[in-house]
């Protein structure tokens, strides 16, 4: 009876609330109310997807599980996979499989209003330009094109036709990273002094993939540069990078597998990063922000993270971190697709703008130059539109 006086009023007298970081509960509420962000459901888009490789297969999974999309075409040059894909996803005969030589059928089909690109980097520019020329909005894996000039042409084409061109920087849509960014922008850590990003890949990509990836700076480090600029809300004025090729097969194709970089920003903030093509213990992705008020950090995620083992005298054991990007960023891939559909169907502002994509490409180019020359590179943004 000694604590009964602390009981307070009945919980039924309170208006129920829940923490917004519980994004699964938010999704549940949308399913219950059959409204997405409080809006009535729009007419589904009709789409085509190019490429079913590393990224394309992830996007196909998201598309097949999204009621806002009707998939009409799948384009890939591995035609031997077509029947297995149809059986696995239980696709009707309405879904048409094509090879890249038959792509014109997609472009000329006026019922298709969105195109998803997950094919190799060297194919992006032509698919983007052809899709936009035929009045289709485009969701494209980064990079949009192999060069900054070609990327600009893609965005200029989209602007002239009034179409949407979305560069899929999926990590912006990861709930953990987004929460950190929001807190930084709210001033939680005060004036940011140091941002640290670690990105170590798993598993080791094949050499065939690396040959057509565009190089580690434009394939991997663009994510680190994008995270740094996105969280801080500014662009660096100086880039320094050092890189090594410790894996013989990577060195043979004139690329790098071990990289460190330093970005200096106008506010005085410094971003420090390390990146590796191969992590033997899993997909290591961490982000930390330090300011005059304190620190925020995102640690690695683990499958079955609430399970711990206490066996004998070995101490406490937890599960290893996620093995690779499809599992670590599963929510991010789903969220970025929802955002793209919000842009197309409801006219929401696009969160990955053309200038941000071009800026990240410019930073990656400067960082590679620094790594290859051994010199720091100053970046002048004054002439950029």
Automatic annotation (TrEMBL):
Organism (species): Iphiclides podalirius (scarce swallowtail)
Domain Gfo/Idh/MocA-like oxidoreductase N-terminal stretches: 48-168
InterPro entries named among the record's database cross-references: Gfo/Idh/MocA-like_OxRdtase_N (IPR000683), GFO_IDH_MocA-like_dom (IPR055170), NAD(P)-bd_dom_sf (IPR036291)
Superkingdom of source: Eukaryota
Coiled-coil regions listed in the entry: none
Similarity section: Belongs to the Gfo/Idh/MocA family.
Protein name per the record: Inositol 2-dehydrogenase
Pfam families assigned to the protein according to its UniProt record, in alphabetical order: GFO_IDH_MocA, GFO_IDH_MocA_C3
């Amino acid at each position: 009876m000694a604590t009964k006086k602390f009981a307070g009023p009945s919980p039924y007298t309170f208006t129920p609330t829940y923490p917004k970081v519980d994004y699964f509960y938010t999704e549940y509420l949308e399913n219950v109310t059959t409204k997405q962000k409080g809006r009535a459901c729009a007419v589904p888009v009709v789409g085509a997807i190019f490429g079913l490789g590393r990224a394309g297969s992830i996007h196909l999974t998201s598309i097949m599980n999204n009621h806002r999309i009707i998939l009409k075409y799948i384009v890939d040059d591995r035609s031997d996979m077509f029947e297995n894909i149809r059986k696995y996803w239980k696709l009707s005969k309405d879904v048409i499989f094509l090879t890249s030589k038959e792509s014109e059928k997609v472009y000329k089909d006026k019922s298709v209003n969105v195109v998803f690109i997950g094919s190799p980097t060297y194919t992006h520019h032509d698919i983007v330009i052809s899709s936009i020329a035929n009045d289709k909005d485009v969701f494209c894996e980064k990079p949009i094109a192999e060069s900054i000039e070609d990327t600009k042409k893609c965005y200029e084409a989209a602007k002239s036709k009034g179409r949407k061109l979305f560069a899929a920087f999926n990590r912006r849509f990861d709930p953990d990273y987004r929460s950190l960014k929001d807190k930084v922008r709210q001033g939680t850590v005060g004036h940011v002094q140091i941002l640290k990003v670690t990105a170590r890949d798993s598993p080791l990509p094949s050499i065939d993939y690396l040959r057509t990836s565009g190089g580690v700076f434009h394939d991997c480090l663009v994510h680190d540069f994008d995270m740094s600029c996105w969280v801080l809300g500014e662009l660096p004025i100086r880039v320094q990078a050092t890189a090594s090729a410790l894996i013989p097969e990577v060195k043979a194709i004139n690329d790098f597998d071990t990289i460190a970089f330093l970005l200096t920003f106008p506010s005085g903030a410094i971003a420090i990063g390390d990146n590796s093509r191969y992590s033997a213990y899993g997909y290591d992705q961490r982000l930390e922000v330090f300011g005059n008020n304190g620190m925020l950090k995102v640690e690695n995620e683990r499958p079955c993270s609430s399970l711990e083992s206490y066996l004998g005298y070995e101490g406490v054991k937890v599960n290893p971190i996620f093995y690779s990007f499809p599992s670590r960023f599963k929510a991010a891939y789903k969220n970025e697709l929802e955002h793209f559909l919000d842009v197309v169907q409801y006219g929401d502002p696009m969160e990955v703008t053309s200038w941000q994509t071009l800026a990240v490409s410019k930073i990656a180019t400067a960082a590679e130059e620094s790594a290859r020359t051994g010199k720091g590179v100053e970046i002048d943004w004054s002439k950029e539109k």
